[in-house]
Amino acid sequence: MPHARLLLSLLLFAPLGLAGCADGPVKPDPAAVKTLRETFVLSDEPAAAVTPLAWREAQEADQEAEESPSDRVVLTGMVGGMPNPWGAENELEFPWKAGEATFFLVDPATAEEFSSHATEEGIEHAEDCPFCSREAATKTTSIAVVTFPSTDDPSKPAAVDARDLFGLKEGDTVVVQGIASVKGGVLMVAADGLYRQP
Questions:
Q1: How many distinct structural domains can be found in the chain?
Q2: pLDDT digits over 154-191, tens only?
Q3: By Cβ atoms counted within 10 A, which residue in 66, 74, 79, 86 is the most buried?
């Protein structure tokens, strides 16, 4: 009898537990993705791109301010390419923001520093290398937070993961254009165009 009750419970409640699993993550609306791609993906590489560090150096030559006014910019860099400088408890999916059209663009020189260190360490280089973690925490000025706005509400990021929207992978080199500003010491780009280098 106890076995019969157990079997009945399994039959009744198992479908409830499995319903969400079968569906998997919510996929973005293909029509919305198509519209956003047509809006933001550039067929030609914008000219006169600078790196995040070069942009900051130019700004510092003009002014010594923590907060900067908005400025039209064309930036080039790598998607990721360094450890999360804000630690594991912040920006959990660095260099991405899950579910939104935002990613972290790293200055190529900084990405090369971390790549060279990993190469020197070879197979023994730990993913949670203490040296890399310490260094990353000092390199936030090498990063631009790039966000593509929603076409419905430009004050919010588009609700499509940048990986799905642009087919990006960590390590890709891209050029982005948009409006740059510095908030809390972090370079932010409200982007309106992206070109992925082949």
A1: 1
A2: 999 999 999 999 999 999 999 999 999 999 999 999 99
A3: 79
